Each structure stands twice: as C-alpha cells, then as structure tokens.
Amino acid sequence: MVNVARISRKTTITCTILCQLVIVTYMLLRLFSLKYSDNKLFFRGYFPYDVTISPNYELTMIGQAIAMTCSSIFYSTVDTFIAMLILHACGQLSNLKEDLMKIHLYNKNNLHRTLKKIVQKHDNVNRFSETVENCFNLMLLFQMLGCIIQLCFQTFQAIVELEQRIVFQIIFLCIYTVTAMVQLLLYCYVGEKLTFESAIFQSIDIADTAYNCEWYSLPPKNARLLVIIMCRAVASPLKLTAGKFCWFTILLYSQI
What we know:
It is found in: Cell membrane. The chain crosses the membrane at residues 12-32, 65-87, 136-160, 166-190. GO terms for molecular function: odorant binding; olfactory receptor activity. By secondary structure, the protein is mainly α. The protein is 77% helix and 0% strand. Helix 4 packs antiparallel against helix 6. The longest helix has 54 residues, at 111-164. The radius of gyration is 25 Å and the shape is elongated.
C-alpha cells in the first residue's frame, strides 16, 4: 500500500503539472498574440458590461485566468482520483496474497476466524472494484471518445498551421496533444494493471497461492474456506471498461 500511495502521489503531481503547463502556455501565447487579434481576451464571450475600458478589462482577464486554472485542477483531479481507486484495489489484492502465503503460520485457535476475514476481504475488494467500474464506466466512455475526437481535430489543426508556419500555435498544440495522450494513457495503464496484473494474473495467482499454501495441515472445516477464494478469483476477473464497450488496456491505447 505504501508503493500504491507513492505511485498515486507521483501520478497526481505529474497530471497536475501537465494541465497547468497547458494553461500557462496558452495564456503566454495568447498574451503574445493579443496585438495581432481582434479579440483582446483569453476567450471570446458576452458580458453585461463594457470590457474595453479599465478596470473591467483587467478584472475580466484575471477572472478568465483564475477560471482556467481552477478548471485544469478539477480536470486532473478526476483522472487521478479514478487511478488512485484502481491502484488501491490492486494493492489490496497484493496484501491478500501475502496473507494467504502466511496462512499456515496463524494460531490454530484463531485460524477459522482469520480465514473468514480473508474471504470477506477478498469479497470486499471485488465489490469495491465493481463499484468503481459501475460508477465511472459511462464517464470513461465519453472521456475516451472525447480524447479521440480531440486528437483528430488537433492533429488536423497542427497540419494546417504547419503549412502556415505559425510556430507558437504549433508548440501549444503539441503540448496539448501530449497532455491528452497522457490522460488516456493513465486510464489504460490502470485498466491494464487491474485487468491483467490484478484481475487475471493476481487473481489466478491468489488461487494458486491458496492451493500451494499448507492447506493439508489445516482442519478440513478451515481448508474448505480456501475453495471460496479460489473459485471467486478465477470466475470473476476485475476490469475497467469504457461504458461496458471495451476494456482499458495498453493495446487499446496503441489502437487509438
């Protein structure tokens, strides 16, 4: 769990920095190009006051800058929050495997209670992963489709501006495209880790661990509890999907 917390922390910092980099780059390039544009604000908009006079103009610019910064923070927070939940489930499965490896070392008097806790914990981890999947799969579908559409339009715009040799806009589009790709990579990475490393590899590994532990030295009543873990581990692979349509994996990322 310490490793999971460390990975989640680094992921959160990286995503936040990337989103802020996009905002800072856009504001700097926008300020540089204001004298060549008929729009003197960061974004076009309609306001119930005259934005061409001071201090309305300065306050509007500050307001738009604050709104962009807050929006980027909220945007990266959702991505990293989902990744943190999935990584948390993977860490719990690793802890569960460690508990099974030491099952023969537990006190014989408390063995039945310990096995019961392990079975309940395994069921809770599965329910937790399924809850995360059911809550966010539709949102992840729109995120994936939105990312695909963004990549198409941004790449087309970059090609058009490359012909016009607009260097600053090309730089911004490159940074923006890299950020969008990293966002999609984050979903595919945690989905790959959950599906193949924890759901398939770790779950099958948990079943193998339950079988390879010294179950023959346990009382028959306690040894039968391991069958529940083995059946649940093999029969219910965990996964992260986009609207139940496809699994988030590195293969999906490469196809996109």
